[in-house]
Amino acid sequence: MQPRKTRKIRIGKLVIGGDSPIAVQSMAATQTQDLTATARQIEVLEKAKADVIRIAVDSEKDVEALKELRKKFPDSTWSVDLQENYKLAPIVAPWVDKIRYNPGHLFHLEKEKSIREKVEFIVEAARKNNCAIRIGVNCGSVDPDYKERYKDDSTESMVRCAVDHCEMLDEMKFENYCVSLKDSDSTKVIDANRRFAAERPEVPLHLGVTEAGLPPEGVIKTRIAFEQLISAGIGDTIRVSLTLPNDDKGQEIDVGREILTDIAEGRFRSVPENFLEGLNIIACPSCSRVENDKFVDLAQDVRKMTEYAEKYKLTIAVMGCRVNGPGETDDADLGMWCGPSHVNLKKGTETLGSFSYDEILHQLKKEIDQMILEKFGELEPKFGELEPK
Fold first, then answer.
1. Is 109 a domain residue?
2. Domain carrying residue 337
3. Which pLDDT score is estimated for 273?
4. Which of 180, 192, 256, 383 could form a disulfide bond with 206, CB atoms 3.0-4.6 angstroms apart?
5. 190 with 319, same domain?
6. Which long-range contacts (CB under 8 A, 24 or more apart) does 71-74 make?
7. Residues near 382 by Cβ (< 8 Å), separated by ≥ 6?
């Protein structure tokens, strides 16, 4: 184990970085305005002893809901996800301990303003309310300028974006921040965080494999990244992103602590032989952006339905929302992102159509079979032949 070299930052009463314990966090997967469901989600995560709970806001009504929830949970350590609405920063900051913004989402609103002006707006809200900031760079929503500039190296586009945003915060004399560089591919997560840590070793890092998917595969993908990075002294707080029913979200905390304990005690789990050499299903962990709770069931049904195709090296992505879903399915052979009543099916970057939740499995099966025929020259059973007699 190599020691961590990062500076310490404060998230409410929690300190991360340096020799502080690695913090374990998760995110509420409910609609923030559904006070009963979100309170239940917070209770589940608190029972699992989450160090930080992240909650999304995308409107002033979400902020009002957050204020009501804070009355019930005055001592929780909360991070807020600004989604695409950076303008909410000043009104949400008084109620949370950390603000997470995604550089790739800043161009959506007030396009006449520069990115720097928008970052300064967030920074001033955080400074006034003693909030930490997380610069959250995500593979599926990289700032278009960086994506174009580094079109031949998607990992470098993430790293350069993160480094540049750090420089902006430094110039604004704001030091209470951390960074995350996330991808659904464990190897890219390792590469991106190593590159960033080599350049900015003092900046605390939040680690995660986004859209890791269903257990146990999602746990293995996450473990691969965490074992490689944390043993090298990289990583100050973690999130295990698993596709789970809301009442089981505490498993993300349990798995995270188990991985940290194993690493600290020198127990490195070997990766199963040929892991990820065949079918790879990517699924997001669900959050308040999900507009239909059938998403989690769909992810589980996709895994069950595709068992027949496990030997084929294909990537299928199942995403729960319209915010990150379209971009984060671009690299998959077949991708789905879910809306309120329909699921949008893609082949790479090409949109194939929109299908009801009842229709999508049959349509997906047709596309998988066609792809197996095109890529591998083999035919697979018809959908009906796979169903129980």
1. yes
2. 280-386
3. 62
4. 180
5. no
6. 72/39, 73/39, 73/42, 73/46
7. none
